[in-house]
Design goal:
With 599 residues, this protein is an alpha/beta fold. It has 15 helices and 23 strands. It has helices spanning 31-40, 48-57, 66-80, 93-100, 146-153, 187-197, 216-230, 291-301, 327-331, 345-350, 363-372, 374-381, 403-406, 422-430, 478-482; strands at residues 8-15, 18-24, 46-47, 90-91, 124-129, 158-165, 173-175, 185-186, 206-212, 256-260, 333-336, 358-362, 385-389, 412-415, 439-441, 466-476, 495-502, 509-512, 523-532, 539-546, 554-562, 569-576, 582-596. The strands form six sheets. The chain has a six-stranded mixed β-sheet. It has a five-stranded mixed β-sheet with strand order 12-13-14-5-15. A four-stranded antiparallel β-sheet has the order 19-16-23-22. Helix 5 runs parallel beside helix 6 (187-197), helix 6 runs parallel beside helix 7 and helix 11 crosses helix 12.
Length: 599
Amino acid sequence: MNATEKPEKHKYKLCGCIGRSFRMTSLSAPKDVEDIFVKYAQNGIIGAAQLQQFLVEVQGEKDATLKQAEEIIAAQHRESHVIHVLHRQGFNLNTFLQYLLNPQLNPPINLSVHHDMTKPMSHYYISTGHNSYLTGNQLSSACSEVPIIKALQKGVRVVELDLWPNEDAEDKVNVLHGRTLTTPVDFEKCIVAIKEHAFEASEFPLVITLEDHLTPALQAKAAEIITRNLGDLLYLPDAQTTCIEFPSPASLKKRILISTKPPKEYLAAVEPPKDVIHPKDGAWGEDIPDYNEQVEQGAEKASPPAAPDADTNDSDDDDSIGKKTAPEYKRIITIRAGKPKGVPMKEAMAAKEDIVKRFSVSEPQLEKICKNHPLTVINFTSRNFLRVYPYGLRFNSSNYNPFVAWSHGAQMVAFNMQGYGRPLWIVHGFFKANGRCGYVKKPDMFLPNESGGPVYDPAKAASVRTRLKIKIFMGLGWLEKFGKRHFDNFSPPDFYARVGIAGVPADQKMRRTKAIEDDWHPKWDDEFEFKLTFPELAVLRLEVHEYDMSDKDDFGGQLCLPVSELKTGLRHVTLCDKRGDELSGVKLLLQITRNDSPV
């Protein structure tokens, strides 16, 4: 028998004493899976030798050994509580399906750190948070160390703190979003939380970016708090050494670096503009903005109206660090931020200097310079850091299309991690690469070649380099997770799946399956092909929704995965909720096929 569960009836009350009964379909193997089982099984059992052959031929694991196959069988049997001696020798169809749906034994991507981590830090995309201390919106939410901790636990490697004087105590430093109604949190509390949780999810270096509005005396106080609490974790640059090339993530394991821009005088308070950006598309947020449309609009938004505490990193003279800065504070700064005052961004990026710099630009500023001077940006980011932060009017903590920045080499694409929505799902998925360590090595075409410059030119038409096929077989786990009336009071759900690619404009596409009516175990058996020009940046998007004829479709889970890391063959995925947390037990079974063309 194929089923792992016995069919059962579910009753739904319509009105009064009138009700309907639905026979729940059994959880059984899709036909393609059953055919593969029959191909490799001997006398109804896939033993270790047959499983090794399956791993090599179907799953693309060319180095799979007999011992690994034996260990997989033993591990699955421990979880399935298999006692029968004959069955313990291998998989029958039921245990084979259970193995395919096992998140530990059959993951869709490589779970370990495997990128070369010995290159300069500027050669990596780095998971970056924006206003990391906010619990909600940018205007009135509370400031706390809790969202910082949550971000660190998800692998974020750059956190941002805005430092302001404490109005009630002259020697205290607060963290808050300045000139808003956000309630402050004590700076030292944030630093202590960072120390305790900095390396829970990743051992690679953590960067703290400080936007300070402090007097020299309070800068000295902030420096004292940092050095006293972080101790040997703090990486202190050698004052006598000019940093021509930044150290590697591998050489800075379990070290914390400070990056800051020149301090600013207090800015006059301004009225919040009315042009507030609101999320769309219901509970799960708007779709990622169109790349080309966003770049076109960037020129229009490049000089937005004043917004409370909007990032203005690059309006100050870079040399002002040292003129009005406490020496204790200056000493702890590893990555200097800011460009020379009055110099256009293009000229500042093109200037040849013997020191690694970090520039910060808003999303509209980035879009404008990428449209007009894309190669200047790519050349700059091959050695220096570029941080991109959200448009100043995103008061609701929404986010933007990260591919404009990533496709021009920007390392620190700052996102409001406390929010949710499709752009943030993309970022979560992108940084699942490389063992979720928060560092993803940039494609070689973004890095200096023998002639000294990058080889990628976004203006040139790209050819298709990868053909990716995704066949979505089935889903399960919603009934156990949510209960039978979560999606519909009167019948089982009508699930459909959305499958697509986020990436550069030529690669972006979304498709959807048919809706399967009244079924907690939908079997779609739909296949989609995607032609990719830039697979290194592409992200696979998976969403499940419940079709509702009379109202908005219900959200059933989502997951994004880096295409560059996808394993081929029959693979399990566990879906996540709107905030990116796993919905334990809610799964899809896919078949992934990939054909690459030489570059």
